[in-house]
Amino acid sequence: MSYTIALDFEDGATRFIKCKDTESVVDAAYRQGINIPMDCREGACAACKCRVESGSYALGDYIDDALSADEAAQGYALACQMRPTSDCVVRIPADSSVCNTRQESYTANIREVRRLSDSTFSLVLQGEALRQLLFLPGQYANLQVPGDGAHHRAYSFSSMAPGGDTASFLIRNVPGGRMSGFLADRAQAGDPIALSGPFGSFYLRPIQRPVLMLAGGTGLAPFLAMLDKVVAAGGSPHPIHLIYGVNSDGDVVETERLEAFARLIPNFSFAVCVVDEDSRHARKGYVMQHIEPAHLNDGEVDIYLCGPPPMVEAVARHLREIDVKSASFHYEKFAASAA
User: Fold this and answer.
1) Which residues contact 243 (CB under 8 A, 6 or more apart)?
2) Using CB atoms within 10 A of its CB, is residue 87 exposed (0-12), middle (13-18) or buried (19+)?
3) Residue 45: φ, ψ to 5°
4) pLDDT means per 10 residues in the chain (339 residues)?
5) Is pTM, for the whole model, over 0.85?
6) How far apart are CA 308 and CA 138, in angstroms?
7) What is the CATH T-level fold of the domain 105-199, as seen in this structure?
């Protein structure tokens, strides 16, 4: 049997390989052009030590000096001995360039550009090449700005069905922004766009406890992709609550999609809050002001946080101040770029 292994590298790159249950991760990677650092190939030198973030596997044969019992209990394995028994996510402590992995690039065409609000565009790309693009929901791609040399911008996928030929993104409308200017003034259906990826270690882990999602502005995008995966998986065994914060009423987007998720995922709920005191929304203020004790489940919760740096830093500081010790805490900051 063959399984999909996501290799996460230190530089944020993720590469997907197929690994048979009869071969090691090192051998499978090498067969597919990725050289995971290793020396002995016998479970003795520990050069290929990695951490398995999700999935099941057999550790294989090795000596204690290469992998201690404590390390094995914490999810570490030796890639030269590890054999998967399910799909896995494996963190490799090396830069992807060291492993001779090439940046995966694709070309697609614009299928649709919609202005969801004064501050947000929806961009949908389509192309046969996208069928080869595998990503973990929450990751991002680098999109090259058409007609603007080598400039590119990083955007999280807001949706993409595995094996499908379309990918969607939420893009903030930045005054003077290169991509914003292109989408506002020049983009036409059929225009080609080059993209590369996927990148990033911000992605949905297996749901083993309640989940709290905190989104600021277009930081909503990765959560939409995550919730797509939850729907595809048939729901969640644990509650998922999303708090989505924006500056003004005009910045609120994709609520219809969130309402659809609430219908499709019985354990999912969401709240929208707006900073503007004159907002018509019932919840005003910042995201952290609407985190309730029940959402934190006495610390037995996985927290995901995505938004602009000031928002991410403020929420992280607030969680520290109230002494929240969550089971896991994953975050991603994004900064808008002007020309």
Assistant:
1) 212, 213, 214, 215, 270, 271, 273, 287, 290, 291, 295
2) middle
3) -100, -20
4) 93 91 94 86 88 95 89 94 96 84 83 94 94 87 83 88 87 90 92 88 89 96 96 95 95 96 97 93 93 93 93 90 88 67
5) no
6) 15
7) Elongation Factor Tu (Ef-tu); domain 3 (2.40.30)
